[in-house]
Amino acid sequence: MRRLDWERIASVVLIAPSAIAIAIFVYGFIGFTGFVSLSNWRQLLPDFTLVGLRNYQRLFANPRFQIDLRNTVVFTVLFLGACLVIGFLLAVLLDRGIKGEGIFRSIYLFPYAISFIVTGVVWRWLLNPGTAEAGSVGINLLFEKFGLGFLKWGWYTDPTVLYIHPESGVGQLLQRVGLGALAYSNFGMSVAIISLVIAATWQMSGYTMVLYLAGLRSIPEELREAARVDGASEVQILRHVVLPLLQPITLSAVIILGHISLKIYDLVVAMTGSGPGFATDVPAYFMWETTFQANRFNQGASIATVLLLMVAVLVVPYLVYSIRTEAKI
Amino acid sequence: MTYTIKKGDTLWALAEKYLGSGFAWPAIMASTNQKNIEDTTFAYIANADVIHPGWKLLIPSKEDAEEFLATFDMGKPELLFGKRAKGQVVIGSWWTAGGEAEGLKGLFDIYKKKYPDVEIVNATVAGGAGSVFKGVLKTRLIGGNPPDTFQLHAGLEVEGYSPEKYLKPLDDLYASEGWEKVFPADLVALLKSYKAHYWGVPVNIHRSNVLWYNKALFEKAGVTPPTNFDEFFAVCEALKAKGIVPYVLANNQGWEAPHAFESVLAGTCGAEKYGGLWTGAVPWTDPCVAAALENLKRMVSYANTDYPALTWDAGAGYIVDGKGAMFIMGDWANGYFMAKGFTGYGWASPPGTKGIFIVLSDSFAMPAEAPNPDNAAAWLKVCGSKEGQMAFNPKKGSICARTDCDPTPFNDYLKSAMADWAKDAIVPSVVHGAAAYEAWATDYKNVVSLFLTTGDVAATQTALQAACVDAGICK
Predict the structure, then answer these.
(1) Cβ separation of A293 and B438 shorter than 8 Å?
(2) A132 inside 8 A of chain B by CB
(3) B150 close to B92: Cβ distance less than 8 angstroms
């Protein structure tokens, strides 16, 4: 009995430093940011007068922030989809047991070791479209040289926003069912964001591949054998045996990639900046500008809080799920 | 008093003659050596027994000599050689490239010569118009870890640093250095525009409204620099007909196009109305703002389509490479052209702005908590001195804030800018911190950047007015 008490005390003492540090430097600062987002701190000198939710009202009324939210959703969907599909395909191909698997694995994983800044700079040059009069550069030049000139376009400099036009058929249908607000350019997709998706996918799909490869390797060969004995084709095995067993991997990948894409900042800074008409602007970039250029610390904090809530929507259900599964074991 | 040594003089004899006692000779040696640190025309006396005819000495007053001798002690001979500043001076700026970095180095060289024992820490952070530097600096100021001195645009930008708390007013330095007399009155007014105190020492003057053009392309299309918007668009048509991009637009960092719009606004509304827009005398609902937006919209239609990929220097590079004919950028572009060894450029006022000088000025400020305030004050003196400004400006591609600079070392463009500076109507730049508080300037930039793609004149004008109201200037 005495021995047990001693162990208890020791464990509390050992955990205390990191618990206190996390309480202050993570949760304390989150709390402080939330507090600032309700304050009137609008110059370098702090002003902690509380103004309620006014900062949030103004934020959501700001056209730039509306565009940022649209961009975040579009970017996240495209980036997640591309990474999962490409990562999974690469993993399945490598899992075939080809020669030199180690080399291919390293090649595909290598971009993950580079910082987003480097990726951003390189892809800014590659996707720089040049001008019609002075000639193409980068990938557009490559297209031209290979006779694929019709593929040339403005990449991240193209200000086009694709959206459901209110006067189009679909737009009128939406209006009839009371969802007319969706037929609005702020619910569209700016094509410039595709360039960002390409760069981010190039960097992260190798990582997704490694996750899937580990998952594939952990599926016992017996299960596949059993399916084969039952007369299933390889595609059917993939569809009905492998994919369901990979579900936890997919979930982890979505969580990891999802929070990266919601918080993305460095890639945007290095590659495109805000883009034409804020076509590639993201909330984190706006947060930095409004805080450190316009001195609106209150507005910056409200953007940070909105970002936190967005990530929480993604991560909290996952945490609940994994804690429950652990409890079962 | 200054004394020049004649044949047969000794320090002992001079001390006897001017200070009443030969024993006062260390006072003459110390004061001369101290003066030598600032002004090398005075002698440096390494050995009291070896002096030469023709050397210039500084003989102190009797009171000063007595004060010195009271603390002097033969056991501390270093006191004879003058007190030299020691330690560090941390200088924050966003000058990292080309002529800017060379100009900064020119200032460093002067400082090092005067204060050889002070280590200069060059705390630069790259990023056009200081966009990145300012974020770093604000973090350092709030965190109580500021540099000794830092770069600041003269004018209302200082409001963003809460100067009452974080900066030192420099009124005393202005009085002791007599700067109010050597800087032009318009600039003095701008420097004092926040709470009637001086917060920075200007090293230079830049002009925001300059239209740069490629001479060879103008010749090819047979056009001359336009003076108003009708001519400008006619020139654009002529260039376009030759397959040349008429107007180069850049906006990668989000300030380049709003910068060009400053010139368009002044060119369309005129100097007086333009100035009034920033003081609240003219509302943004004025029809001239809509006309300026229409002009900008038309300019964008003649511009390169890859403008979101171009930073200001990449835009200037289009002029160098002949990829575009005209570019509206501040006169730091001149320094860029010189650094590239490019001479085939010409300059003019952007349409409608002849006789208007949109000004911005780089200055240096001192944080209230500067760790080495004496060294920082010495730096500010170098910045405001004629010697410092002459070393800095020809390289940076700007003109002196002082009016007594010699125009000889400046190139042709800068000579013309000096002439304009003396006679034009002076109005402040908004993108570069002179005209408006930073929060308002940021809103202005966002609204103009968005306008480039939407082209919605009415909505943009409403948003510009809303930004002015939000800043507390318009009603």
Answers:
(1) yes
(2) yes
(3) yes
pLDDT in tens, B207-257: 999 999 999 999 999 999 999 999 999 999 999 999 999 999 999 888 999
Q: What is the DSSP letter of B139?
A: H
- Burial profile A5-37: b = 16 or more Cβ within 10 angstroms, e = fewer: eeeeeeeeeeeeeeeeeeeeeeeeeeeebeebb
Rg, C-alpha atoms of chain A: 25
Of 3.30.2090.10, 3.40.50.300, 1.10.3470.10, 1.10.3720.10, the CATH number of A37-328 is 1.10.3720.10
pLDDT in tens, A307-319: 999 999 988 888 8
**pLDDT at site A133:** 64
Count of CA atoms in the C-beta half-sphere (13 A) of B38: 11
Structure tokens at A215: 């998952």
Chain A CB within 8 Å of residue B308 CB: yes
H-helix or E-strand containing A168? none
Q: Where is average pLDDT lowest: B80-84, B356-360, B380-384?
A: B80-84
Annotate A83-119 with b (16+ C-beta within 10 A) or e (fewer). Answer: bbebbbebbeebbeeeeeeeeebeebbebbeeebeeb
Domain B2-81: state its class.
alpha beta
Q: Is residue A41 scored above 60 in pLDDT?
A: yes
| Whether residue A1 has pLDDT greater than 60 | no
Q: What is the pLDDT of residues A203-254, one digit of tens each?
A: 999 999 999 999 999 999 899 899 999 988 888 888 888 989 998 899 889 9
Question: B449 and chain A: CB distance < 8 Å anywhere?
Answer: yes
CB A192 within 8 A of CB A279: yes
- Residue B465 one-letter amino acid: Q
Could you tell me the fold of the domain covering B211-352+437-470? D-Maltodextrin-Binding Protein; domain 2 (3.40.190)
The DSSP output letter for B213 is: E
Distances (CA, A) of A212 to A76, A254, A257, B138, B213: 20, 12, 13, 44, 56
Nearest by CB: A157 against B142, B253, B306: B306
Number of C-beta neighbours around residue B153 at 10 A: 26
Phi, psi of A19 (to 5 degrees): -65, -45
Q: What is the pTM of this model?
A: 0.79
pLDDT at B40 over 90: no
Residue of B nearest to A161 (CA): B453
Among B422, B472, B372, B362, which residue's Cα sits nearest to residue B90? B372
- Are B430 and B275 within 8 A, CB to CB? no
Residue with tokens 């804030």: B401
Provide Rg for chain B, Cα atoms: 26
Nearest to A292 among B134, B164, B306 (CB): B134
B460 touching A, CB under 8 A? no
**B234-268 b/e (C-beta count within 10 Å ≥ 16 → b):** ebbebbbeeebbbbbbbbbbbbbbbbbbbbbbbbb
pLDDT band at A83 (very low <50, low <70, confident <90, very high): very high
Token look-up 């830092």 returns B150
Assess B462–A contact: CB distance below 8 Å, yes or no. no
Mean pLDDT (whole number) for A59-77: 92
Which residues of chain A are within 8 Å of residue B442 when distances are taken between CB atoms? 289-290, 293-294
- Residue B321 touches chain A, beta carbons under 8 Å: yes
Partner residue facing A273 (CB), from B166, B245, B252: B252
Q: Cβ atoms within 10 A of the Cβ of A240, count?
A: 12
Superfamily of domain B87-203+362-396: Periplasmic binding protein-like II (3.40.190.10)
